[in-house]
Amino acid sequence: MSYTEKLATTRQNLRGLRKAIPETFAGFVQMEQAASAEGALTHKQKELLCLGIAVALRCEDCILSHVGALLRAGGTREELSEALGTAVQMSGGPGLMYAAKALAAWDELAA
Fold first, then answer.
1. Which one, of 92, 97, 18, lies nearest residue 63 by Cα?
2. What is the pLDDT of residue 99?
3. Distance between CA atoms of 103 and 26, rounded to whole angstroms?
4. What is the architecture, at CATH level 2, of domain 3-110?
5. What residue spans of the chain are helical by DSSP H?
6. Residues 6 or more apart from 29 whose CB is under 8 A from it?
7. pLDDT by residue (tens digit) across 77-104?
8. What does pTM read for this prediction?
9. Distance between CA atoms of 31 and 7, rounded to whole angstroms?
10. What is the tens place of the pLDDT at every residue in 22-75?
11. Could you tell me which residue ranges the Carboxymuconolactone decarboxylase-like domain spans (predicted)?
């Protein structure tokens, strides 16, 4: 399955969860919007942080979501790569494997 297909599946799964727990889901969306709003850090910088955390936690669905969000926020492959390097520093070998997936997802989604 391609990363594009995986991202579409993730989004479909989230739609189902939103219907099952609408109030909880709405609360999470509100928190996400507040946390990602421009402030001392730009939205793009915050997406880089989110992506690094997703790699360190080894959450492939989170990685895909934040790779897409970083693309929409105007991030570059070079910025992504530097953030991935920091994530690997903090998470070791498992992070290295997920960082490779993040870069492959970027390359597919950016194409």
1. 97
2. 98
3. 30
4. Up-down Bundle (1.20)
5. 3-20, 22-36, 43-57, 60-72, 77-110
6. none
7. 999 999 999 999 999 999 999 999 999 9
8. 0.92
9. 22
10. 999 999 999 999 999 999 999 999 999 999 999 999 999 999 999 999 999 999
11. 22-104
